Predict the structure.
Amino acid sequence: MTVERNTRPLEPTVETDFSDRMSYGGYLQLPTLLSAQLPLSNPEHHDELLFIVQHQTTELWLKLVLHELAEACRLLREDELAPALKCIARVKHIQRTLTEQWSVLATLTPTEYAQFRGVLGKASGFQSAQYRAVEFTLGNKNAAVLKVFDADPTAHELVRTALEQPSLYDEFLRLLARTGYNIPSEILDRDVTQAWTFTPELVPVFTGIYADTATHWAAYETCEELVDLEENFQFWRFRHLKTVERIIGGKTGTGGSSGVPFLRRALDLTFFPELWAVRTEVPDAAS
């Protein structure tokens, strides 16, 4: 079959009758999904749909990130390092998509946003339970944030569970200990509800791994994958900061934060500080 008059004829085998079978839209629940964009401005402002779709798609990607990180943690607990790294690799691709997505929202000008910002009330991205669960799963834990979700039992449970479970880094360190690396017992038995902080005792462990990558390839590869995760997360944080600064300048956030200064302080948060510190310890080759 050839294309004539710029029209591609349907092949005879293409399904067209879905009166009694599942369709693409049915499988994806598209009537529900596409009816979930409900602008509140009156009259409806043209750009509010952009704002809603941007944040809804972010939440969908975060759902998948949590799904993959949970599986990676499970696989690490079972000493299945290779498939865990596959999950982490998928998360890295999602992170790049999430970061690039800010460029779409950045087309929203300050004047356009100001015309419907008021309908958000106190709603803010700070209240994203899934984002907070991702941070907690990567080790940036803060129990004080739980009270933000007191009015939403489902969201509260999601964040509380992420707070109380070992982080991805905790699981990796436990795997290293099981495979013969000298991880101090106080690290393995630490209170996992606390934010991870720099632990200098770990730096010699990682220095040994980086000094002989051939012998320690699996651990070395995992370290670099984790560094990628953190770097990507910081790119996302920075792009978020600059997009907010571009749109609202020095205004306070709708959720009550100081806005840009609050977001800027997030750039000082870290997930895997020892994996950055080890870079200073790796000796240069002799000339």
User: Anything to note?
Assistant: The chain has a mean pLDDT of 96.
